[in-house]
Amino acid sequence: MLSTMIELSYKDTGRRERSIPMTGSTHDAGGAALPVRIGSGLFDLLFKGCRIERYPAGQHLFVQEDDADRIYGVLSGTVEISLFSPGGQKLVANIELHHSLVGEIGALDGGTRTATAICLTACELVSLSRAQLFERMQTHPELARAMIELLCARLRWVSGEMGDLAFFAIEARLAKRLGLLSGISADKDGWIELSQAELAEFLGATRESVNKTLNDWRSRGVIELRRGGVRVVSAAKLRGIASAGEDD
């Protein structure tokens, strides 16, 4: 196993704790799986010699159903991955941060983009064409292995998200999402700069249902709210809400 990989613990359907090799993934304090990424050494190898590309906040990298011809690596900034229904309804699928890969599915299979990627903040990225990606994987087989493991990890992630959406009420789903966001995007004071409408887009829920749940949690001392932000006050209570949803 490559030295850049770590051991990720997860629970299978029989609730037995298992350990598998995975690239750069972890869990937050609430037990929610954080977005996966390849190790820093493999990231550097993949994009060696690529020039830095700078994008302003609000810049689209690609749009759902676009032809796919590049894979991107995030050096700094935040990239949002979103799905859109034919009617324009938005679902935020993921947030990509430092050393994340963006657009690997289309770059690997040559199909159209499965989602839309937009820079939420000013971003510094590196990128490869599809031809360059395959050339580097052929030259460095460890990159091909890492990409396979990354895709498997993302599939586990998506499967878990689909299960949450199908089986858990909004309270449990929101608790798990806030636990995740606290681990990857909170500022030094613990504030997550995200509006209630944006939280609703993460969950595929209505803003009204998110607002009702958050205000209930604020009254119970679980979170604090301010305009455009939320802060977890009691991680233990939040984990309890998420666990109660799993036990229902």
Strand order, main sheet: write it out.
3-10-5-8
**First-last Cα distance:** 39 Å
Q: What count of structural domains?
A: 2
How is the CATH topology of the largest domain named? Jelly Rolls
Mean pLDDT, to the nearest integer, reads 83
Find the structural class using helix and strand composition. Answer: alpha+beta
Percentage of residues in helical conformation = 25-40%
Query: What would CATH call the homologous superfamily of the largest domain?
Result: Jelly Rolls
Name the CATH class of the largest domain: Mainly Beta
Order of secondary-structure elements? EEHEEEEEEHEEHHHEHHEEH
Oligomer: single chain
Give start-end ranges of low-pLDDT stretches: 1-33
Q: What portion of the residues fall into strands of 2 or more residues?
A: 15-25%
Description:
The chain is α+β, with helices and mostly antiparallel strands and 248 residues long. It folds into two domains: 6-165, Sandwich (Jelly Rolls); 169-247, Winged helix-like DNA-binding domain superfamily/Winged helix DNA-binding domain (Arc Repressor Mutant, subunit A). The chain has helices at 40-46, 104-109, 130-139, 141-167, 170-184, 196-203, 207-219, 235-247; strands at residues 6-11, 17-22, 53-55, 60-62, 70-76, 79-84, 90-96, 101-102, 116-119, 123-129, 191-192, 223-226, 229-232. The strands form four sheets. The chain has a four-stranded antiparallel β-sheet with strand order 3-10-5-8. Strands 4-9-6-7 form a four-stranded antiparallel β-sheet. The chain has a three-stranded antiparallel β-sheet with strand order 11-13-12. Strand 6 and strand 7 form a beta hairpin. The protein is elongated, with a radius of gyration of 18 Å. The model is unreliable at 1-33 (pLDDT under 50).
